[in-house]
TrEMBL record:
Subcellular location: Mitochondrion inner membrane; Mitochondrion intermembrane space
Annotated protein name in UniProt: Dynamin-like GTPase OPA1, mitochondrial
Residue ranges annotated for the Dynamin-type G domain, each copy included: 284-560
Alphabetized CDD domains for the sequence: DLP_1
Length: 954
């Protein structure tokens, strides 16, 4: 039964599956054909069609919307990008707001335009009908008729100008038409507004050829000028782009990258010459430069000013102006400015105020260079001048050669100028610009013989004849000027001969006025008309071109050779350093000074770290050394001599003398002792410094000495010390055994030192003793023997008073006379002083040793005992010096060490600015070799940099 049910279910399931497949296919066929496969009749497919159309429409709408979104997104993104680009472009444009101040607004511009149009229409109408002009102003009939006539002349003049321009263009564009040019070609264009037109002149074919050449030259000059300004415009545009880029970076908070500024060739070459200035390098300093030499007032400075196109030098009426060599570096630049090598200020040469300041600065530098009674100096004043059209070169203006010295000049002025001139001309690569005054007799020249001796072949000499206008007026024979410019009058030879005019003896003439006067003079000069000189031999413009060309030819021919010479010198110096100082760095004077400065300041800072007990011991020692003589000579010995073993009298005298000492002299002595202690401590700190280079010691010692000389203790410190010292001296009670022993020790040592001095004095007076005579074979002189006899007689007398009575002196003299020794009373008293002092000190030394054990007795009497009063006096002095030492130590730690450090820094700063002092203190082969090696390296590096740039320019 179950099997039957299972089979029926399988059949039913299979049948249903088959029908399901058939139904799906039928439905699909019905949809596309419109008929039912199963029922064989049409079925309703409207809802299916609607569904199909709806889906197609939905798909189309979706595609359209997708395209719109794409377009909309692209438009929005492109608009934002375009807006951003526009904003960046607008920010990069320069600020043109200044035009708003110059141009009128729209209303005024429209009103002005309307007025012009109306005026044009009225004028044209009036002219066409021949009616007089009747604008808003009533014109005089005579003026009206004259205006009509002038208008007709203006029309004719414009027509003539147009015809002239057309004719000139035809001649320029077609040289073949020159031979067929019309005879009606105008000779020149005149102003027909002032006169009637001139008749047209006939021209020959030669005139047309010269006219064509002139036009061709003008065209070339215009093209060259246009190319130059085009290059300048491109450079300015490039700089403008870089500035805009830096501005954008700064706005974004980013720093622009710092790039080394490119220098011109002439600036690089001038830097090399600056390195060599003032350095006697021997054969290595042979770099080319233009040396301007000539007699005084021959016009050297004027020629240089014409080349530099500015009145940059001071002028004097008949006196020497150039007192030192002036090195002028000329280079081309967009602005006409001047600047000194050691100054950041730029002088605008187009402003008269800056020119006046520049001349004053040059004069001031010259006067500063000739201090000490000198008239001329070899110190070089270096200046750079830049401007449009300047030729690149380096010129050195030297003082003029003189033949006679005046009374206000130094005695060696003439020889100094001659030696300086010869030194610069002896350079085989120097171009000698020999300036000769044309207004004076050639036989009065002093400089031509010097030039001829330095450059006999004339291979590097350029001769310049100045003041030709005056020469032409004064000379009866112009042929003499021709002979000079042909090199046939002077025995010297030259590369070229030039004639220039550098002024009209007017101080206020500008360079432009002088140049125009020079060109007018040579155009109308007899020298030109008679053919005595060629055009290339005149004007400072041609001279400047020739000098610049000669200068650069000389530079290119010799600079590499000079670089090789410096390279070989550097190798030799480095080899010497390695062999002589193998383990030391190559430090020049500046580096050595900075190291000594740092080390000295470190040691100065250690003053505040010195222990208090060290300071007090040193101060006490210094105080006693300063006060010992005063204590013995003015207090102790006079009080003991006055007392004569009277204790009360001794104490009274000591009190008076101690107070006088404390009020008058002790504070000043204490300050002086404090300064000495400060010096000793500083010296000890320097001596204890480890790894200190001995080459620093002269610098450190000089700086410390100068700082201590300047260091002054505060004035109020003396008043404070005076009060402390008076209070300390009032205490007469020794409170402890330690203080007592210290006072006894001080007294014993002081007496012993004094006793040694007295014994030495007696030995010098009386000669050697028995021991020296028998062991060292020393003998006494007659005077010493006589002094010895007097000393022996005085000691046998046994007197303990500081002064002898008259009877005692007579007794000693009589005893000596019996032995054949004749002396007077003064001789005896003079000998008695050291004898008495020795005996007194011996007794004082004994009393000091006895008092060492008397402190108990002194303490039992509460300081009222009369024994050992000398120990109490020394204790009072010692206590006062301790108090003073403590006060000085506090003053040093709180104030004086810092003040000394500041003064030491000031001294070091002054020494750093004094090269002569550094050269004096830092000397020796090590320093000189390092200095020379440094300078040779600098010159070689700059020469190599210059050669690299020169090769790139080629």
């Amino acid at each position: 039964m179950s099997r039957i049910l299972h089979n029926r279910m399988r059949a039913s399931l299979k049948k249903s599956t088959q029908w399901t497949v058939v139904d799906k296919r039928a439905v699909a066929f019905s949809v596309w054909t419109g008929r039912s496969v199963l029922l064989h009749k049409p079925i309703d497919t409207s809802h299916v069609q609607r569904r199909r159309y709806g889906m197609l429409v939905a798909r189309a709408v979706r595609g359209v919307l997708k395209i719109r979104y794409l377009l909309l997104g692209g438009a929005v993104g492109g608009g934002m990008t375009l807006n951003k680009k526009y904003s960046e472009w607008k920010d990069g444009l320069p600020d043109m707001g200044w035009l708003n101040e110059l141009l009128p607004d729209n209303d005024k511009w429209d009103q002005f335009t309307t007025t012009l149009i109306e005026a044009k229409e009225k004028i044209s109408d009036q002219l066409q009908i021949g009616v007089p002009l009747t604008l808003s102003v009533q014109i005089d009939p005579r003026l009206r008729d004259m205006g009509i006539a002038r208008a007709s002349e203006l029309r004719e003049w414009l027509s003539q100008r147009y015809e002239d321009a057309v004719a000139a263009a035809a001649v320029t564009n077609s040289s073949s038409l020159v031979h067929h040019i019309s005879a009606e070609q105008p000779a020149k264009i005149v102003n027909n507004l002032q006169s009637k037109p001139q008749p047209v002149a006939q021209r020959s074919i030669d005139d047309n050829s010269s006219y064509e050449k002139r036009v061709h030259v003008l065209q070339e000059e215009v093209l060259a000028l246009q190319a130059r300004y085009q290059r300048e415009l491109q450079r300015l545009e490039q700089e403008n782009r870089e500035l805009r880029q830096q501005n954008m970076l700064l706005r974004q908070g980013r720093q622009p990258s710092t790039r080394k500024m490119k220098r011109s060739l002439i600036d690089m070459y001038s830097a090399v010459l600056d390195e060599l200035s003032g350095w006697d390098a021997g054969e290595t300093d042979r770099l080319p430069r233009v040396v301007v030499v000539g007699d005084q007032s021959a016009g050297k400075t004027s020629v240089l000013e014409m080349i530099a196109q500015a009145r940059i030098f001071p002028r004097g009426a008949g006196e020497m102006c150039t007192r030192a060599p002036v090195k002028v570096t000329l280079s081309e630049g967009p602005y006409h400015v001047a600047q000194f090598r050691d100054s950041a200020r730029e002088f605008d040469l187009n402003k008269e105020s800056d020119l006046a300041d520049l001349r004053k600065e040059v004069e001031l530098r010259m006067r500063n260079s000739v201090r000490g009674g000198r008239t001329v100096s070899s110190e070089v004043i270096s200046m750079a001048v830049k401007g449009p059209g300047l030729h690149r070169m380096v010129l050195v203006d030297l003082p003029g050669v003189i033949s006679t010295q005046t009374v206000d000049m130094a005695s060696d002025t003439r020889d100094a100028i001659k030696q300086m001139t010869m030194k610069y001309m002896d350079n085989p690569n120097a171009i000698i610009l020999c300036i000769q005054d044309g207004s004076v007799d050639a036989e009065r020249s002093n400089v031509t013989d010097l030039v001829s001796s330095c450059d006999p072949s004339g291979k590097r000499t350029i001769f310049v004849l100045t003041k030709v206008d005056l020469a032409e007026e004064n000379l009866a024979n112009p042929n003499r000027i021709r002979r000079i410019l042909e090199g046939k009058l002077f025995p010297m030879k030259a590369l070229g001969y030039y004639a220039v005019v550098t002024g009209r003896s007017r101080k206020d003439d500008s360079i432009q006025n002088i140049r125009e006067y020079e060109e007018r003079f040579f155009r109308s000069s007899k020298l030109f008309k008679d053919g005595l000189v060629t055009p290339s031999q005149v004007t400072t413009r041609n001279l400047s071109l020739a000098v610049a060309d000669c200068f650069w030819r000389m530079v290119r021919a010799s600079v590499e050779q000079q670089a090789d010479a410096f390279k070989a010198m550097r190798f030799n110096l480095e080899t010497e350093w390695k062999n002589t100082f193998p383990r030391q760095r190559e430090l020049d004077r500046d580096e050595l000074f900075e190291r000594a400065r740092a080390e000295l300041l470190d040691q100065s800072a250690e003053l505040s770290a010195v222990a208090a007990n060290v300071w007090e011991l040193r101060l006490q020692h210094a105080l006693w050394q300063a006060a010992a003589e005063r204590v013995f000579g003015n207090i102790y010995l006079p009080a003991a001599a006055t007392a004569h073993a009277d204790v009360d009298k001794f104490n009274t005298a000591v009190d008076i003398k101690l107070r006088e000492w404390a009020e008058a002299e002790l504070p000043t002595t204490s300050i002086r002792a404090g300064r000495e202690a400060l010096r000793e401590e500083f010296t000890d700190l320097m001596s204890r410094a480890q790894d200190s280079d001995p080459v620093y010691e002269p610098v450190k010692k000089e700086a410390v000495e100068e700082a201590l000389r300047r260091h002054q203790w505060e004035d109020r410190a003396q008043d404070v010390l005076r009060v402390l010292q008076l209070n300390a001296l009032q205490d007469r009670c020794v409170s402890s055994r330690q203080d007592w022993d210290a006072a006894v020790t001080l007294m014993d040592s002081a007496v012993k030192e004094r006793l040694d001095l007295v014994n030495k004095e007696l030995k010098d007076l009386t000669g050697p003793g028995l021991k020296e005579r028998w062991l060292y074979w020393q003998a006494s002189s007659d005077e010493q023997a006589r002094r010895g006899e007097v000393r022996g007689e005085l000691e046998r007398l046994g007197v303990a008073r500081p002064a002898l009575a008259y009877d005692e002196v007579v007794a000693v003299r009589d005893n000596l006379r019996r032995r054949g020794i004749d002396v007077d009373n003064d001789y005896i008293r003079e000998t008695w002083k050291p004898v008495y002092l020795r005996n007194f000190l011996l007794r004082a030394q004994t009393r000091a040793r006895d008092c060492r054990k008397s402190f108990y007795l002194y303490s039992q009497q509460n300081g009222n005992g009369k024994e050992c009063c000398e120990v109490v006096m020394f204790w009072r002095v010692q206590q006062t010096l301790r108090t003073t030492a403590n006060a000085l130590r506090q003053q040093i730690g709180n104030r004086e060490a810092n003040r000394l450090d500041r003064e030491l820094r000031e001294v070091l700063d002054e020494m750093a600015a004094d090269p002569e002092l550094k050269k004096k203190l830092l000397s020796g082969r090590r320093v000189e070799l390092a200095e020379e090696l440094k300078r040779v390296r600098q010159v070689q590096e700059k020469l190599e940099e210059f050669i690299e740039a020169l090769n790139k320019e080629k």
